[in-house]
């Protein structure tokens, strides 16, 4: 039996619910399972997660405290950062946010 975990939620204290994709074999009730972390996938996910923090910090640096995170999607090779701000960003603002985020990457 081989599966890929796509999501883990904790609906109640002490319970971890895993959403999986079965890659090989069949999952049988009562079967013993062992888990192995895909280290490359984990590393890429960690990079996307760190980038979320850097982008948020850059937005707040450039736009001020009214720029707030509204959500994000972090996947290896892909990052979406949702934020709220009371006005549309100008091209100059976007360039400043990008510059601040890139500086944070270079400094880390």
From TrEMBL:
Keyword Ligase: yes
Segments forming domain Alanyl-transfer RNA synthetases family profile: 1-108
GO terms of biological process kind: alanyl-tRNA aminoacylation
One Gene Ontology molecular-function label: ATP binding
PROSITE patterns: AA_TRNA_LIGASE_II_ALA
Gene Ontology CC: cytosol
Keyword Zinc: no
Alphabetical keyword list: Ligase
Name of protein: Alanine--tRNA ligase
Species for this entry: Brevibacterium paucivorans
